[in-house]
């Protein structure tokens, strides 16, 4: 029996952190090998498609952040051009390789991540992704490598966890009555929030029209910005929404409405330090106006995961 196991010292990482771990091998018999290695990969890939059928066009670009290989035992890895000759030589003599004796073998390793990295991300709409992983393997000649793979949970390190308040205003006039208008102003105490946190603020509505406002809703939207070579693509998806309570505003009146919404804990945090895949969030309040186009007030916000932010508890 041959078994390989990979253990990492912690679950979450940020740019600049040191990835430390141990590779454990369990062998019932001695085996020849080129080496015991660890490979660390980090990349982002933007992809999307437009059109359909014969007019369908797919855009894609990949950017590698790091691709490092550490040899823990044996010889350094051979380039592809030399693998065939090495395998042929090993076919006639196994003595050309190092040997791993039967029993348990343990190898520790350490690798420092680059100083700037975006967080992990997997798009459920386009397939774009930001991914990190560690692969531990035994480089076996003339056989499939003994291998195990473990993802790295990398969080984007925020520049700051504090932010200024934000004010967003939108006004709507009516075609046949220019003196009639509705103005809504969204106030948030801050723009940076943690996943699972209660988002709160207020909405000031000045109804200078003859219409009665009765219905509204709050929406949290994810905005995905993608770039592949010279092409760009933006997509907006509503990740959660709720009816707005106590939103009735009579004609020719003003009202201050509280805004409150629980940010889901299972969302991907904002991605701001990437090159190809950028993820932003915005809070949108929609006032439904009878027999007219809805009035929408939008405020950008930043979402952070407390698990990847120093000195912040994972439960907020």
Short description:
The protein is mainly β. It has one helix spanning 80-92; strands spanning 2-8, 12-14, 18-27, 31-33, 35-50, 57-74, 98-100, 103-112, 121-122, 129-139, 146-151, 153-155, 166-174, 177-188, 192-194, 198-207, 215-228, 231-243, 253-262, 277-288, 295-304.
Provide a descriptive summary of the structure in words.
With 316 residues, the protein is mostly beta strands. The protein has 2 domains: 2-155, Sandwich (Immunoglobulin-like); 166-308, Immunoglobulin-like. It contains 1 helix and 21 strands. The chain has one helix at residues 80-92, and strands at 2-8, 12-14, 18-27, 31-33, 35-50, 57-74, 98-100, 103-112, 121-122, 129-139, 146-151, 153-155, 166-174, 177-188, 192-194, 198-207, 215-228, 231-243, 253-262, 277-288, 295-304. The strands form 6 sheets. Strands 5, 6, 9, 10 and 11 form a 5-stranded antiparallel β-sheet that branches. A 5-stranded mixed β-sheet has the order 15-21-20-17-18, with no helix packed on it. The chain has a 4-stranded antiparallel β-sheet with strand order 13-14-16-19, with no helix packed on it. A hairpin with a 6-residue loop joins strand 5 (35-50) and strand 6. The longest helix has 13 residues, at 80-92. The radius of gyration is 28 Å and the shape is elongated. The two termini are 46 Å apart. The model has no long low-confidence stretch (mean pLDDT 87).
Mind sketching the topology for me?
Layout: E1 2-8, E2 12-14, E3 18-27, E4 31-33, E5 35-50, E6 57-74, H1 80-92, E7 98-100, E8 103-112, E9 121-122, E10 129-139, E11 146-151, E12 153-155, E13 166-174, E14 177-188, E15 192-194, E16 198-207, E17 215-228, E18 231-243, E19 253-262, E20 277-288, E21 295-304
Parallel strand pairs: 2-12, 15-21
Antiparallel strand pairs: 1-3, 3-8, 4-7, 5-6, 5-10, 9-10, 10-11, 13-14, 14-16, 16-19, 17-18, 17-20, 20-21
């Amino acid at each position: 029996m041959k078994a390989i196991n990979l253990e990492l010292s912690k679950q979450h990482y940020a740019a600049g952190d040191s990835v430390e771990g141990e590779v454990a091998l369990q062998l019932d018999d001695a085996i020849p090998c080129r080496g015991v290695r660890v490979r660390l990969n980090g990349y982002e890939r933007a992809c999307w498609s437009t059109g359909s059928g014969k007019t369908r066009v797919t855009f894609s670009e990949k950017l590698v952040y790091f691709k490092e290989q550490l040899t823990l035992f044996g010889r350094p890895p051979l380039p592809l051009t030399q693998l065939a000759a090495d395998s042929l030589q090993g076919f006639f003599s196994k003595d050309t390789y190092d040997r791993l004796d039967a029993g348990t073998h343990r190898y520790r390793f350490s690798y420092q991540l680059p100083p700037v990295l975006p967080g992990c991300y997997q798009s459920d709409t386009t397939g774009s992704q930001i991914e990190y992983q560690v692969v531990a393997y035994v480089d076996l000649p003339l056989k499939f490598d003994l291998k195990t793979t473990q993802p790295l949970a990398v969080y984007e390190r925020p520049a700051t966890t504090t932010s200024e308040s934000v004010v967003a205003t939108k006004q709507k006039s009516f075609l046949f009555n220019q003196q009639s208008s509705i103005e809504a102003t969204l106030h948030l105490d801050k723009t940076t929030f943690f996943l699972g946190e209660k988002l709160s603020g207020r909405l000031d509505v000045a109804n200078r029209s003859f219409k009665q406002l009765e219905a509204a809703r709050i929406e949290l939207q994810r905005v995905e910005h993608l770039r592949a070579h010279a092409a760009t693509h933006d997509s907006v998806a509503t990740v959660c929404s709720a009816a707005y309570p106590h939103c009735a505003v009579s004609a020719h009146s003003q009202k201050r409405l509280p805004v409150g919404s629980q940010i889901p804990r299972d969302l991907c945090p904002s991605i701001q330090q990437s090159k190809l895949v950028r993820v932003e969030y915005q809070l949108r309040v929609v006032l439904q106006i009878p027999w007219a186009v809805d009035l929408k007030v939008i405020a950008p916000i930043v979402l952070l995961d407390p698990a990847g932010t120093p000195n912040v508890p994972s439960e907020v």
